[in-house]
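Complex 455.
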Amino acid sequence: MRILLTGFTPFLDVDVNPTALIIEHMATQHYPGLEIIAEVLPTMYDTAGARIEALITEHTPDSVVCLGVAQGRSAINLECVARNRDSTTRPDNAGAIRDDTPIIPDGAETYLATLPLARFQAALTGQGIPVVYSDDAGAYVCNHVFYRARHALEQQGRAIPCGFIHVPGIGEEPPGLPLATMIAAVEMCLHEIAASLNDSQPAHTGKLNYDALAAQYARSRGIHPAVLNSLAMTGGVTSSSKVAEIGCGTGNYINGLVTHTDCAGWGIDPSNEMLAYARQQPTALHIQPGFAHETGLPPGLFDLVYSVDVIHHLDDTAAYFREAYRLLRPGGKICTVTDSEAIIRTRQPLSTHFPETIAPELARYPHIADLESSMSQVGFQGIEQQAAEDRTRLTDISAYREKVFSALHLIAEEDFQRGLAHLEAELQEKGAVVRVSRYVLLWGIKPVDQRPRIT
Ligand code: PCA
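Predicted structure with pyroglutamic acid bound:
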């Protein structure tokens, strides 16, 4: 697999461009199975733009990753959008200043990155490396090269993963990052590209590899291998299944199901921002905007309709069940993955360390018994609950420090601080904090028509 990897020279007041150092380092390394074409581009609009096009044409890479520095940003920035615009008051290294100038006259206004950004995000977060999505790559030379790379590939009809990553300046303290951390981050991204390209090769044996699935997903926060396994197995998902996820968000679960079962996958979500990320998942998904009560999908098509962590966001849960019933073929299954009262009360470490979260969370989540009666009113049969549980040892609790879990925003600051101190002490003492993620999967079946068949 061949990956084109570029960085930039120093420019303006940036005397040391970390991306040039990353490129120099990686050009000397050997990565099994990866051929890296590494080059430092001059920080000049026209020369760099022409060069990236020439490199793409000459080397026909399987993926293109361009790097640049954005001083002052404090995390690895996964750029989502390239814009057809050069516009800055600062000159490039050739002295060119551009004011609101299109890069390609009559070219597309924007191109989205086609790299597996959600995988990058999960992998870096898993290693405690600060990472954010960005929808502004600037209007200077970096955006220019990003746009021209995407444009060239579009022109050549080559749908390969291509995008841009901005790194912070070098430094031991924020907003800087140590060079070694940046190198590790870029290596992980290349590894994720290789893994995603391998995943999407149609080399399926027909047998599901749940162990590989678990290993792959255990790393990423928000994906629970036990949930994914249960969806696939109890849902009876095979390569001929049609599966729809309601409220798919960035598409991690539906991508996981498609990756490991080869089923056909649909993802519906009301958030266009989320859908933009879902569309960058490495598998071929049918991603479209829609609501739980009005998905816009055709009736009677699906073997499995499911949602994960969505039901407590809905105003009208009965309307979600009615819509799912409409989408399913007779004999098709619905699965709603949520938290029961018992689970909310015993979440570890959330409820054990921040017990004040329990009451507001109980108020937010619908009761399982109410969901069950709503399902049977809609006509579902075979309603049953299934438990799924994952245990992990957390050595990094920054997600709690940063209140990544919305429940932590529902409690008083002093209660939050007390819980955090307790958590920090436990981490200090034991070297890790046990997290237990438990879910209940609420299943139902759309009955098969019982009328006698006319033969
Ligand atoms: N950063 C600049 C250009 C070169 C670089 O490394 C940018 O963000 O446009």
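The radius of gyration is 24 Å.
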